[in-house]
Amino acid sequence: MVTPGPESILRDTKLPRHLRAAAQKVVDGERLTPADGLMLYEEASLGYLGALANHVRERMHGDRTFFNRNFHVEPTNVCLYTCTFCSYSRRMKKREDGWEYTMDEMLDIVKQYDGKPVTEVHIVGGVLPQYDVPFYTELFRQIKAHRPELHIKALTPVEYHYIFKKAKISYEDGMRLMKEAGLDSMPGGGAEIFADEIRDQIAGGKCSGEQWLRIHEIWHELGGRSNATMLYGHIENYGHRIDHLEKLRALQDKTGGFQTYIPLKFRNENNELSHLPESTVIEDLRNYAIGRLYLDNFDHVKAYWPMIGRTTAQLSLAFGVDDLDGTIDDTTRIYSMAGGEQHPAMSTEDLVKMIRAVGRQPIERDTLYGIIEDFTDVEFASDKEYRGYTALPVV
Ligand code: V47
Ligand code: SF4
């Protein structure tokens, strides 16, 4: 795809010297400092950030845009924690209105995908006492017994911290048990904002930022891979965002175990922070771009379309994003309850065409970024159906 490169920025003598110097660092593959990152958040325009982030994205991946075929199992939408941004937490008072799946019900969801070409089950939801170490290890075992090749991407340090504490076992022993039971990788949720002063206000009581990072570190040391998120656009400031990115980058330097960074835009429906306005699309795109530029040791930046919407997800592909999650098949409620897509399902054809429509190459991947199929030139059955105007013969 031909998009404006960073040359115009480097030559622009009207641009402040420090912005040109940061652009030069990016072009030279030099690392941005926390001060650079903060300056970008505070001063850089959308055009500047887009040109640089796209340069990095294309240097790493060209036009390749990854996606996977997955579905979610959300064990429950009730939670004993009270994160103010979350529409699940309010349900504890009216627990009977929510769902709390049994093991058999979760296995039934998995079985609904028998024979379908999904490669990953993403398991995440609320925290409740009945979902403990024996429950989850048994669940993972039963999923693997039923469909061994299905990749289990499950639970976050929020659940792990809670269930290991309850079982009185160390993080190390706990994560080893999960691995033995069939856990393949860890999703990036529960990270929110690491800085205590913000975390205590929006996600008080659940694992701290330090504990979140430690559990990922242990998982990486066991040879596992995981993702990382940042929930932005609520009460945090740019300094907190850079602090968050800096901590992710530092851990990645140590372990190399993160695959993907996924910024999560705060959605304001049905939660205690509904009075806060949502971030603008411009801010969302700036945030993707800065993530791409700052996290020089992360291979991928992913847009989660059920939360950000389809159009912004397409736009994000020109602002550093190289991965879209996923076909999902209407199996998550976290975002529809908070103001995102009401029915988050997309066929492979829809997703592929969404990527092609903005001039990129759709590549189906598995969870660990093994390439399954290049969809660049794949024709779909519906392409052959003629949907245009047919002139009738004049008689
Ligand atoms: O941890 C909850 C966030 C996360 C809201 O790793 C909200 O591949 C915005 O982590 N507005 C769960 N965000 C989802 C998640 C995820 C999603 C897709 C892919 C992957 C991956 C991970 O959702 C939670 C929380 O940070 N969240 N409520 C809200 N109102
Ligand atoms: Fe529970 Fe997670 Fe929602 Fe917090 S974000 S209330 S831990 S489901």
Automatic annotation (TrEMBL):
The record's free-text note on cofactor binding: Binds 1 [4Fe-4S] cluster. The cluster is coordinated with 3 cysteines and an exchangeable S-adenosyl-L-methionine.
Keywords linked to the UniProt accession: 4Fe-4S, Iron, Iron-sulfur, Menaquinone biosynthesis, Metal-binding, S-adenosyl-L-methionine, Transferase
Enzyme class at the top of the EC tree: transferase
Residues reported in the UniProt entry to bind [4Fe-4S] cluster: 79, 83, 86
SMART domains per record: Elp3
The organism's place on the tree of life at top rank: Bacteria
SUPFAM superfamilies, sorted: Radical SAM enzymes
Cofactor: [4Fe-4S] cluster
Pathway participation: Quinol/quinone metabolism; menaquinone biosynthesis
One Gene Ontology term from the biological process aspect of the record: menaquinone biosynthetic process
GO MF, one example: iron ion binding
A Pfam family the protein falls into: Radical_SAM
E.C. code: 2.5.1.120
Residues involved in S-adenosyl-L-methionine binding: 85, 192
Keyword Transcription regulation: no
Family: Belongs to the radical SAM superfamily. MqnE family.
Protein name as annotated: Aminodeoxyfutalosine synthase
